[in-house]
Amino acid sequence: MERQPRRQDRADHHSGQPDGDQAGDIGSVGRRAGPHLVRPDLHARFYEGGLSDRLTGTLGADPNQAKVAKAFQDLASYEGKLYGTGFTPDVSVLLWNKDLFEAAGLDPEKPPTTLAELQDYATKIHETNPEVAGYYFSGSCGGCNIFTQAPMMWGSGATLLPTGPDAPVMEGPGVAEVLTMLKEMWEAGVIPESAEGDTGANFMATFETGT
User: Fold this and answer.
1) CA 146 – CA 148 distance, rounded (Å)
2) Which of 83, 103, 122 is CA-nearest to residue 207?
3) pLDDT band at 9 (very low <50, low <70, confident <90, very high)
4) Coil, helix or strand at residue 5
5) Element (H, E) at 23
6) Which H helix or E strand runs over 20?
7) Element (DSSP H or E) covering residue 37
8) Which of 1, 30, 46, 94 counts the most CB atoms within 10 A of its CB?
9) Average pLDDT of every residue of the chain
10) Beta-carbon neighbour count of residue 192 at 10 Å?
11) Which fold has domain 98-209?
């Protein structure tokens, strides 16, 4: 088989816009001086202002578009026209250490399925070995918190997103239930003090060490 020349890295031809630099450089897009690729937060403003090209025809002919989550398609649409597609889909998951479950007398194959079980299991793990945290989250990371706590609130009956401009945000018993659970675990020492100042740097590292 003949070896084909390696394709030149895309970075040689296209400039990208890192997430953290949006605020300083996003205005350059309107002056046609911006990067080739950018991931804005307020998509609709770009569509409304005519700063984005319509991709309805291009993406409509792509069979993969049918697999894109409807939420992504809705966010990328304006007045019936499609201007973008999904970029980084992700999921919120609860990870548990089976070794710590077993040591605490819990079934390692049965993770908690309710807030009460989560608090109970985490407390038992910490009580079995006070040097081990029963639960952990990055307390000073807004993105980490919405990713880890919001699904539990929603699953407990809370309404997280507004249905209109005057609709309330994050209301319902699930909000208080999750916050109360976290407060009680914090006061009991089940959550380590290091969680308070964690900006996300140890989001996974602490779990991986088993402490």
Assistant:
1) 6
2) 122
3) very low
4) coil
5) helix 22-25
6) none
7) none
8) 46
9) 81
10) 19
11) D-Maltodextrin-Binding Protein; domain 2 (3.40.190)
